[in-house]
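[Meeting: bench + compute handoff]

Bench side (C.D.) handed over the final construct sequence. Compute side (W.E.) agreed to return the predicted structure before the next meeting so the bench team could plan truncations. Sequence as handed over:
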Amino acid sequence: MLENLRHFFDRDTEWEQADQAILSLRAGLSQRTLAATKDLADAVGSELAYQYALWHSDFLAALEHCRAVLGKLNHTDLQGYRALWLYLAGSAAWLACREGQLDQETAKDYFRKAQAAAPVLRWLVGLSGPQASGNAARPAAIELSATAIVERLEGVFEQLGTVHDRKYDAEEREILSAIGHKRLGKLLGYDSDNNSDDAAPDPWWIADESVCFVFEDHAEGKKDTVFSARKARQAASHPDWLREHLKLPESTEIIPIVITPCTKSSKGALPVLKKVRYWSRDDFRTWAKNALRAIRDIRRDFPGVGNLAWRTAAAARLKAEKITPEQLKGMLSKSAADVMRGVEADQEES
């Protein structure tokens, strides 16, 4: 660095050569105006006026300048930027409401519109308030638990690296070699873990505080194995174990799932199995492979943390592949008692 700095100060031959190379490179390039540039340029005056109005605590004027900005940001590439200005308009309206100049519905309406423009920003949801009108344009297509997964996926991609595929490929191979359940959950964007204590469940996947999936893996079973009452009670008890050890909120929906090839259970197990969802081992493995392909595709387009367009597209793909919690719940709607045929107890597994 010091050597280059001396060349710069001295304007010597080496500096001249570098300078000419830069000029030649510049001469060979052409400037391309981005499609949304005009909208941004048109909005600048109102953006500055908003800043001055806010500085002088003229919140009604600040809101008017926000409206002027929003009237100029019409290009589709500016969806995220529109969301920002809708949020700023809501903030100005809220400050005006605090001063007794507006009612709170104006602020709520702008916050709802901001969340509709950026549905993957979960923190915007609460700003519209518990009494928000159900008629407002709110993004029903993307549930909050799905956005939690997308946000966590960004961290997974950053941790495994995006410059090359070496670490990502190694992680994927490890999962595919034995369908590593805990690692699979993490790669899909869930908060996934397990515990080796007695009576502890097999891995659990937490989307957010609203929903948690907990698994009883019965991989050693065979199709003609009779699922035992002991196994059924163990699977059904996993939600209680999680509530005690993870201190999950009472409002969290904990869904126990048994993954097994069995299609028969002891008759005594059937009442307990009504509380447990059923996932065929073969179906689970097929789903896992499809899910991993989807995650690889999503990662290919990952531009870095916080890109709203990518988050929206990623959430839609996760939903299509039944990876999001609501879709997964819908796919696993049947209980184990619905699927398994009851047989006499003396035929169950040892």
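W.E. noted at the follow-up: The beta strands are 191-193, 204-208, 211-217, 226-227, 253-260, 264-266, 277-280, 341-343. C.D. will use this when planning the next construct.
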